[in-house]
Design a protein that fits this description.
By secondary structure, this protein is an alpha+beta fold. It has two domains: about 400 residues, di-copper center containing domain from catechol oxidase (Orthogonal Bundle), CATH 1.10.1280.10; about 140 residues, Haemocyanin C-terminal domain (Hemocyanin, Chain: A, domain 2). Helix content is about 25%, strand content about 15%. It has 14 helices and 18 strands. Strands 11-16-13-14 form a four-stranded antiparallel beta sheet, with no helix packed on it. The chain has a three-stranded mixed beta sheet with strand order 3-8-7, covered by helices on one side. It has a three-stranded antiparallel beta sheet with strand order 15-12-18. The longest helix is centred in the middle third of the chain and has 20 residues. The radius of gyration is 23 Å and the shape is globular. The two termini are about 35 Å apart. Bound molecules: CU-O-CU linkage. The site of CU-O-CU linkage has 9 residues, from helix 5, helix 9 and helix 10. InterPro entries: Di-copper_centre_dom_sf, Polyphenol_oxidase, Polyphenol_oxidase_C, Polyphenol_oxidase_cen, Tyrosinase/Hemocyanin, Tyrosinase_Cu-bd. One of its GO terms (cellular component) is chloroplast thylakoid lumen.
């Protein structure tokens, strides 16, 4: 793959689009920080520098850890109960940061009356349709266009206007709100376990506002069905330049019929459509199934009151959600507007359909894949504020977002989910186990510089085949530690397990374990982070479950400056 070349890629999101520290353990904030007495380290755009540290555990987690796998992970203060992040105080809202270093005022109107959300009485369900299907439904399409047009026509200070709706995202995502009680820390709903619930609530109110404006409470947002071949394009309904659904700041090279690349990281590499579709479907399977055994990897890392923002994104947030933002935004704009930057993403109506499908992935995870809710109160009781369809300011909690039917909507089930069958297979038909690497070709001294492909042998915690119950309780994870590089550089490397370094597998093969991708942003110093990749399924597919070690190969793809790798480990992490 060619180097990422566009200078605009250097400034897309205020936070890096692909920090891929989605699996970075959270370190508890130092006590003086929690007490708010000492100024904590700057957090704006500077949150990658998380050292490898013990995962914070609450009492419940520790007990499970003891029950399922001995003393693993019982580090830190096991009796600390974390408090949930509170709803922001709108009167403390300040300017939000744009990636280019300038600021923008995204603050909503304030009011002193806040209503606590109550689940609606059950009524008819709203069914969210696939965007590619509504092109053939003129009645639906007319309502949708009318709703967006009416939102666009509301005065800018009406909290239901399209402009204000876009600013909701800007304030919650670009440092507009300090955390209540920890004013040195911003509220950030990305790169952590708030990603799914925050966006579910955001869409809920957006959809209710649309229904109110057109007088149809059954109106439902369409979803951009990017996880199936029929939807792997910008949906046609958004491309009519005379429609209210159109946004001018999108990548001109990615108009339909250009096929979406769910692993997009800045360049359109030369892959035929059939291969791209196979890779996209395999990516969906990997993110939703093979690598989603643990809450931490699926939802994202815990983020509680007083924590530094952005502890780490979950699988879907990382890939493909971020990639699709990046793929859609206009690379000729300074910050990749609109979809390529958080502060502006909500200006594009396509954003809400993109997130409708992200939200659908959460529903599929729970309804079809046996996924469960996080039971920790610091997640369940996290609060947000939104203006509703009557312009009331409403306080919501994560716990009320868990069941979409209680919120009055479902997803059209007559849409196929082809990736459910896209399990990767091992490339090698024989010798599925360790690659034949002579010991002289293995890198053994760390930290090591990643200037060329390196292979290392990494010992597993145990060479005994784990039972299904053990796998359900703990996920085996490859950790690449202390990945260090200059923050203003683009970095991408691919990770393979038990493959031959001189003839590597495609992205649809089991040997391809994942990638590290960092898109740079304004950052003066080095970034040091970790990458965690789930390998429980990969070990099964490679027939390597009884091997005592694995050969891991890192292939640098992009990165001008030196990339240092601190070391490797294979660990078991609790799944809940
Ligand atoms: Cu709040 Cu798709 O980002």
């Amino acid at each position: 793959m060619a180097a990422l070349h566009s200078t605009t890629t250097t400034t897309l999101f205020r936070s890096p689009l692909f920090p891929n520290k989605s699996q970075t353990p959270v370190q508890r904030k130092p006590k003086q920080c929690l007490a708010g007495r000492v100024r904590c380290k700057a957090t704006k755009g500077d949150n990658d520098n998380l050292d490898q540290g013990p995962a914070r555990l609450d009492r419940r987690n520790m007990l499970i850890g003891l029950g399922a796998g001995g003393l693993y992970g019982a580090a830190g203060n096991p009796f600390a109960f974390a408090a949930p992040v509170s709803a922001p105080d709108l009167t403390t809202c300040g300017p939000a940061d744009k990636p280019d270093g300038s600021t923008i005022d995204c603050c909503p109107p304030t009011t002193t009356t806040i209503i606590d959300f109550k689940l609606p009485d059950s009524g008819p369900l709203r069914t969210r349709p696939a965007a590619q299907n509504v092109a053939k439904d003129p009645a639906y399409l007319a309502k949708y266009k009318k709703a967006i047009q009416l939102m666009r026509e509301l005065p800018d200070d009406d909290p239901r206007s399209h402009a204000q709706q876009a600013m909701v995202h800007c304030s919650y995502c670009d440092g507009g709100y300090p955390q209540v009680g920890y004013t040195d820390l911003e509220i950030q709903v990305h790169y952590c376990w708030l990603f799914f619930p925050f966006h579910r609530w955001y869409l809920y109110f957006y959809e209710k506002i649309m229904g109110e404006l057109i007088g149809d409470p059954t109106f439902a947002l369409p979803f951009w069905n990017w996880d199936a071949p029929a939807g792997m394009y910008i949906p046609e309904i958004f491309t009519d330049t005379s429609s209210s659904l159109y946004d001018q700041y999108r990548n001109a090279a990615h108009q339909p019929p250009k096929l979406l690349d769910l692993n997009y990281s800045g360049t359109d590499d030369d892959v035929d459509d059939a291969t791209r579709i196979t890779e996209n479907l395999t990516t969906m399977y990997q993110q939703m199934v093979s690598k989603a055994a643990s809450h931490r990897l699926f939802y994202g890392e815990p983020y509680s009151a007083g924590d530094d923002p952005s502890p780490g994104a979950g699988n879907i947030e990382s890939i493909p959600h971020n990639n699709i933002h990046f793929w859609t935004g206009d690379p000729t704009q300074t910050n990749g507007e609109d979809m390529g930057a958080f502060y502006s993403a909500g200006r594009d109506p396509l954003f809400y359909s993109h997130h409708s499908n992200v939200d659908r992935m959460w529903s599929i995870y729970k309804d079809k894949l046996g996924g469960t809710d996080i039971e920790k109160t610091d997640w369940l009781d996290t609060e947000f504020l939104f203006y509703d369809e009557k312009k009331n300011l409403v306080r919501v909690k994560v716990r009320d977002s868990l069941d979409t039917t209680k919120l009055g909507y479902v997803y059209d089930e007559n849409v196929s989910i082809p990736w459910l069958e896209s399990k990767p297979t091992a490339r090698k038909s024989t010798n599925k186990r360790k690659a034949a690497v002579s010991s002289s070709d293995l890198t053994t001294t760390f930290p090591a510089t990643l200037s060329d492909t390196i292979s290392v042998e990494v010992t597993r915690p145990s060479a005994t085949k784990r039972t299904a119950a053990q796998k359900k309780a703990q996920d085996e994870v490859l950790v690449i530690k202390g990945i260090e590089f200059a923050g203003n550089e683009t970095v991408k490397f691919d990770v393979y397990v038990n493959d031959d370094a001189d003839s590597l597998a495609g992205k649809d093969k089991s040997e391809f374990a994942g990638s590290f991708v960092h898109v740079p942003h304004k950052h003066k110093k080095n970034i040091k982070t970790n990458l965690r990749l789930s390998i429980t399924s990969l070990l099964e597919e490679l027939g390597a479950e009884t091997d005592s070690s694995l050969v891991v190969t890192l292939v640098p793809k992009v990165g001008k400056g030196p990339i240092t790798i601190g070391g490797f480990s294979i660990e078991l992490i609790n799944t809940t």
